[in-house]
Design brief:
Length: about 725
C-alpha cells in the first residue's frame, strides 16, 4: 500500500508520486492532464504480481525491473538505465534509494553555482523528497518546483555523502519519467556547424535511443532536449512530454522501451568521462531539468517554454527591452579592418538608422587570421589607430552604441600567453592535444586562469564606453586533463569547466550590469538554457542564409523565445551556401529574432542600402510583438520543402504578425491559404492593407489566400489588428 502520495499541480497538469512498501520505494504514478483525484497509487500495481518485495520477496528482481521509479538507482535488479551510480570505498557501484522524509515550501531556491529557473514565493512551490541509501551512506534530495503561471515542473537533485568514507559519483542524472503502456514518437534536434537544431521525428521502439554530447558544450550536433509525443501529434492536438536541460556542457537525454512496454525518459549530465569525488559531509548539486507536458500538441509546449524562459530564466536589463539594431563587421571584413574602415561602416550605418556597431574578431594582439593571438587581449593599435577609446568615442559621436567580441576561453599556440603559460591549456600529459581552428582550450578549472581571463576582459570593458559583448567559443573540448587536479579528480574537469564558465559570466554581468551580452559558439553550438541565464540572446548560427535559417530558426524556436535568437541580414551570395535571396526576404527572416546586419553597408548595392531604413522601421514596429507574443507554427519548410509560415500573436490577441516565406514557387498553386492560428474567434481583424475586417474564426478556419508572391525565396508579412 502507498504510505504517502505527492501530487504536484500546475495550471493544467498533475504529477503524482507515491511512497510504497514502508518507504522503500518512491514510485512515479502519473504525469499528464490535471486530475481531481490525488490518491491514484493503485496504478503502481502493488496488489498484483509482481508484488512489492515486502509482500513477495521471492520476486524482488522482477519488481525492481518493472516498478516505475522516480529516481532509479543502479545494480539491484532494475535492468533499465538508472539515474545514479556511485563507486564506494569497497569498490561496489550499486545504489538503491528509499524515501525517508519530505519538505514543502513556497518559492524556489537558487542552485549553488548553477543557472536555474527562478520564481518568487507567490509564483512557485517546491517539494523536496529526502532519500537515502543506508548501505553506502548516501543522502539524495529530489527537488521539484511547480509554477503558478506555466505548465512546468523543474527537477534537480542534491547528493550528500553521509558516510565516513570517500565516495565517487559516476552518474548523476537530473530527472527521470517512467511511463507505462505508451506508444510514442520522439522529437529531437540535430545538426552540424551552420545547420543547427533541425527537427527529427521518429517512432520509438524497443531498446534505447540516446542523444548526448562529450564536447564540453551541447554542440552543433545535438541538443539537450527530447519530446515524446503520442502518434500523430500536431501543433494543436496530441500529448507531449518534453524534457530540456539547463546546462551548457556534456549532457545525455535518453528514452528506453523495455520488455513490459514501459518507457523511461532520462536527462542529465553525460556520465561518460564524468566522476566526482565526494568527501564525507560534502555535497554535489545536479543541474536543473525542465519538464513540460501538453495535451494540446507541440504548439502549446513551445509557448510554455517561451513563457518559462522569458519570465523565469532570462535576467538583466535587456530581458524585456527592444535590443539596439546592430551591425557586426564579421562577414563585412573578417580580419581585414582598421579604425577607418569601421568608422566608414558606422557612418553609413548611422545614417540608415542602425544603432550599434559591433567589432568582431581580430582587434587584439597579432590576430590577423584565426591562427594566432587568442589569450593576448591587448588592443592592436596598428589596426585601431588612436586606440579603442578613440574608436568608441567616434562611434558614439555618430549616435551609435559600441559592442565588442571576445573569445575568453581559448588560447592560440601562437600567442604570448601560451609562450609564457603552456600548462594553462587543457591537455593530457604525454599527449599532444588536438587543435581545432588552430587553438586550445584554457583550463578554466584553475582559479589563476579564470582570474587572468576575467581581468583581461574587464580591463578592456572598463577602458571605453562598451555596451555590448559577444562572448564566443570556437572549438569543443578534447584531451581532457588539468595540470592542477589529482588523478582521482580528472573526471571532474568537464563539469568544473562549465561551473567556471558560469562563474566568469556571473562576474561579468555583476560588474557590468548594463551590458547586452550575446553568447555564441561557432554560431549556435552553445545555444542552451544555461547560457540564457547570463545572456538574453545567443547567436543562433553562422549560417545567415535566409533559407537555411528557416529550418534552424524553426528548430530553435521550438523551445526558445524569438527574443533570444540572434539573427542578422547578411550579404549575398551567402558566405556559407552561396545562395542569392532577396534583401527583403533576408529582413523578414531576421525579424523572427534579435534583428541586425552583418555586411559591409558601404559596399552593398544602393538599391539594397535604400531598403535598410524601411527594414529598421519594420523592426521597430513589430519587435514588441515579436519579443512578447505567442508563437504559432503554421507551415514548415522543413516538412513541405516549399514554404514556411509562422505567426506571433500578442497575449491580448489584439494584433498578430504572420511571416510567409515561399522558398520555391510552383505553377498553379492558387489554392494555398494561410490558416491563421491563435486569434480570438469572436473579434474582427483587419489585415493591414485590406479594406474589410473578418472574424478571427474566419481567418483561422477559412484562411487567407496567398497572393502576389511570385518567384523563389520571396516573402510577405501580414499584419493583423483587431478592430472590434
Ligand atoms: C564564430 C562566430 O559565430 C562568428 O560570428 C564570428 O564571431 C567568428 N567566430 C569570429 O571568429
Amino acid at each position: 500500500m502507498a504510505k504517502k502520495i505527492f501530487k504536484l499541480d500546475t495550471p493544467n497538469t498533475s504529477y503524482i508520486m507515491a511512497v510504497v512498501d514502508d518507504g522503500s520505494f518512491l514510485g512515479h504514478v502519473y504525469y499528464g492532464s490535471k486530475l481531481e483525484d490525488y490518491d491514484i497509487a493503485y496504478l503502481l500495481r502493488t496488489q498484483e504480481a509482481p508484488f512489492v518485495p515486502s509482500v513477495n520477496g521471492r520476486d524482488r528482481c522482477s519488481f525492481m525491473d518493472s516498478f516505475p521509479v522516480e529516481y532509479p538507482g543502479h545494480g539491484v535488479g532494475d535492468y533499465r538505465d538508472g539515474c545514479i551510480e556511485v563507486l564506494s570505498a569497497t569498490g561496489h557501484r550499486a545504489v538503491n534509494l528509499s524515501a525517508v522524509s519530505h519538505r514543502i515550501y513556497e518559492g524556489k531556491p537558487e542552485l549553488a553555482s548553477l543557472p536555474a529557473t527562478f520564481g518568487g514565493k507567490e509564483e512557485c512551490t517546491t517539494l523536496e523528497v529526502e532519500c537515502e541509501d543506508a548501505a553506502i551512506g548516501l543522502n539524495v534530495t529530489l527537488s521539484y518546483t511547480t509554477f503558478e503561471d506555466v505548465d512546468v515542473i523543474t527537477r534537480s537533485v542534491h547528493i550528500m555523502n553521509a558516510s565516513s568514507k570517500e565516495l565517487y559519483l559516476t552518474k548523476v542524472l537530473s530527472a527521470c519519467i517512467d511511463m507505462d503502456n505508451r506508444e510514442f514518437e520522439r522529437i529531437t534536434l540535430h545538426g552540424s556547424w551552420a545547420r543547427e537544431r533541425n527537427i527529427q521525428r521518429e517512432k520509438i521502439g524497443y531498446g534505447k535511443y540516446k542523444v548526448s554530447s562529450l564536447r564540453g558544450e551541447p554542440g552543433h550536433q545535438n541538443h539537450p532536449f527530447m519530446a515524446l509525443v503520442t502518434e500523430g501529434t500536431t501543433q494543436e492536438t496530441g500529448e507531449v512530454y518534453a524534457v530540456h536541460f539547463v546546462y551548457s556542457g556534456n549532457f545525455m537525454v535518453q528514452e528506453e522501451v523495455n520488455q513490459f512496454d514501459s518507457v523511461r525518459l532520462t536527462i542529465g549530465i553525460n556520465p561518460d568521462d564524468f566522476s566526482w569525488k565526494l568527501a564525507p559531509g560534502k555535497g554535489f548539486q545536479s543541474p536543473e531539468a525542465v519538464l513540460v507536458y501538453s495535451d494540446n500538441g507541440i504548439g502549446a509546449m513551445t509557448r510554455t517554454f517561451h513563457d518559462l524562459y522569458r519570465n523565469h530564466l532570462i535576467r538583466g536589463e535587456y530581458r524585456d527591452k527592444k535590443r539596439p539594431v546592430l551591425i557586426n563587421n564579421w562577414e563585412a571584413t573578417y580580419f581585414d579592418f582598421d579604425t577607418d574602415k569601421l568608422i566608414a561602416i558606422a557612418k553609413q550605418a548611422a545614417e540608415l538608422g542602425i544603432e550599434m556597431l559591433v567589432m568582431d574578431d581580430g582587434w587584439f594582439g597579432s590576430r590577423d587570421s584565426d591562427n594566432s593571438a587568442l589569450g593576448d587581449w591587448k588592443v592592436n593599435e596598428e589596426k585601431l589607430k588612436g586606440g579603442l577609446d578613440f574608436l568608441v568615442k567616434e562611434v558614439n559621436r555618430l549616435g551609435m552604441k559600441f559592442g565588442i567580441w571576445f573569445e575568453p576561453e581559448m588560447i592560440s599556440p601562437d600567442s604570448d600567453l601560451y609562450r609564457s603559460h603552456p600548462d594553462w591549456a587543457i591537455a593530457i600529459p604525454g599527449r599532444e592535444p588536438a587543435l581545432a581552428r588552430n587553438q586550445y582550450v584554457l583550463d578554466l578549472t584553475r582559479k589563476e586562469v579564470r582570474d587572468y581571463v576575467y581581468e583581461c576582459v574587464a580591463k578592456i570593458l572598463r577602458s571605453a564606453n562598451i555596451e555590448y559583448v559577444k562572448w564566443d567559443m570556437n572549438r569543443p573540448l578534447s584531451d581532457i586533463g588539468s595540470a592542477c587536479l589529482p588523478a582521482d579528480r580528472q573526471g571532474e574537469i568537464y563539469h568544473r569547466y562549465v561551473l567556471a564558465l558560469y562563474e566568469l559570466q556571473n562576474r561579468l554581468i555583476k560588474e557590468f550590469p548594463y551590458l547586452l551580452l550575446e553568447n555564441c559558439s561557432g554560431g549556435g553550438a552553445r545555444f542552451d538554457p544555461g547560457m540564457l541565464y547570463y545572456s538574453p540572446q545567443i547567436w543562433c548560427s553562422d549560417d545567415t542564409d535566409a533559407v537555411e535559417r528557416l529550418s534552424i530558426q524553426e528548430g530553435t524556436a521550438l523551445i526558445y523565445p524569438l527574443s533570444s535568437i540572434g539573427a542578422h541580414v547578411s550579404d549575398c551570395p551567402n558566405h556559407t551556401v552561396g545562395r542569392v535571396t532577396p534583401f527583403e526576404t533576408r529582413g523578414y527572416v531576421a525579424l523572427a529574432g534579435t534583428f541586425g546586419y552583418e555586411l559591409d553597408v558601404t559596399k552593398i548595392s544602393e538599391e539594397e542600402r535604400n531598403m535598410i531604413p524601411d527594414q529598421i522601421a519594420m523592426y521597430h514596429k513589430y519587435n514588441d510583438l515579436v519579443r512578447r507574443g505567442d508563437y504559432y507554427r503554421i507551415a514548415s519548410y522543413q516538412e513541405n520543402h516549399l514554404y514556411d509560415c509562422y505567426a506571433v500573436v500578442s497575449k491580448d490577441k489584439t494584433e498578430a504578425l504572420i511571416t510567409y516565406i515561399q522558398v520555391l514557387n510552383r505553377p498553379n498553386v492558387h489554392s494555398r491559404r494561410i490558416y491563421v492560428k491563435g486569434l480570438d474567434s469572436n473579434r474582427k481583424y483587419l489585415v493591414e492593407g485590406g479594406e474589410k475586417a473578418y472574424y478571427g474564426n474566419t481567418l483561422m478556419k477559412a484562411g487567407i489566400p496567398v497572393e502576389d508572391v511570385w518567384g523563389d525565396f520571396k516573402g510577405k508579412l501580414y499584419y493583423l489588428r483587431a478592430v472590434e
